[in-house]
Structure formats: structure tokens, C-alpha cells
Design a protein that fits this description.
The chain is of the alpha/beta class. The chain has one domain: Transcription Regulator spoIIAA (2-Layer Sandwich). It has 5 helices and 5 strands; from the N terminus they run E-E-H-E-H-E-H-E-H-H. The chain has a 5-stranded mixed β-sheet, with helices on both faces. Helix 3 links the parallel strand 4 and strand 5. It is globular.
């Protein structure tokens, strides 16, 4: 079961803290919520993963779909606080090249706020 909380930093930035493990029904609900956040103006979504159990291939596909949706709306998805197993999956699959991965939420937030294209 998945659980998450959100913190809206600005009109364009939302932090999502995820905990638990995604199953089929949770995955669709969670990523639909991410897309809804993007549609509501949060173009930059930071997903904190330190309490996320694992990522399956279906989870990765949903994450890439959310990334594409964010990009289409001029935004981006950021992943922070990855467990070693999730980081390894992203490295092996080379998906780390497509996703914005940062060690900490503060680092991702500083990157977003320092880019005039992100806040302007």
C-alpha cells in the first residue's frame, strides 16, 4: 500500500513524500495524482523516495509517463533520497539519465529555484 503527503512550496513546485510500496491499483492512483498536480500548475514535482519500498518495471513506466506529462507542461519530475536498490535500478536501466535525481530534496529545490526558466 502506498501513502504520500504533499507540500506546495510555490505555485509551480510541490514536494511529494512517498512511503510504502506501489501495487497495481496504488500505482495508477498515485501517478494520476501526480498528473493532476501538474495540471493544477505544479510543473516541478519533487518526489522524496526514502520511504518507498521498491520500483517495479511498471512503476518505472508510470514514472516515465509522469515525466513526459510534466515535460509537456514545461516542467520536470525530480527524485530525491533514493534507496540504494532504487538508485541501482535507475543506473542499470540508464533511466537516471532521463530523470532528475538528487541526493536530497534541498538540493533539488535549490536547483529549481536557481533556474530562471523554472521560476520565471
Amino acid at each position: 500500500m502506498i501513502d504520500y503527503t504533499t507540500q506546495r512550496i510555490s505555485d509551480a513546485v510541490t514536494i511529494v513524500e512517498v512511503s510504502g510500496a506501489l501495487n497495481e491499483s496504488d500505482r495508477k492512483y498515485f501517478f494520476d495524482c501526480i498528473c493532476d498536480m501538474i495540471e493544477s500548475g505544479s510543473r516541478y514535482i519533487i518526489i522524496e523516495c526514502h520511504r518507498l519500498g521498491r520500483l517495479s518495471s511498471s512503476d518505472l513506466a508510470s514514472l516515465l509517463t509522469a515525466r513526459k506529462h510534466a515535460a509537456k507542461n514545461g516542467g520536470r519530475i525530480y527524485l530525491t533520497h533514493l534507496s540504494s536498490s532504487i538508485a541501482q535500478v535507475l543506473e542499470i536501466t540508464k533511466l537516471g539519465r532521463l530523470l532528475s535525481v538528487y541526493p536530497a530534496t534541498e538540493t533539488a529545490l535549490a536547483h529549481i529555484l536557481s533556474d530562471p526558466a523554472c521560476v520565471g
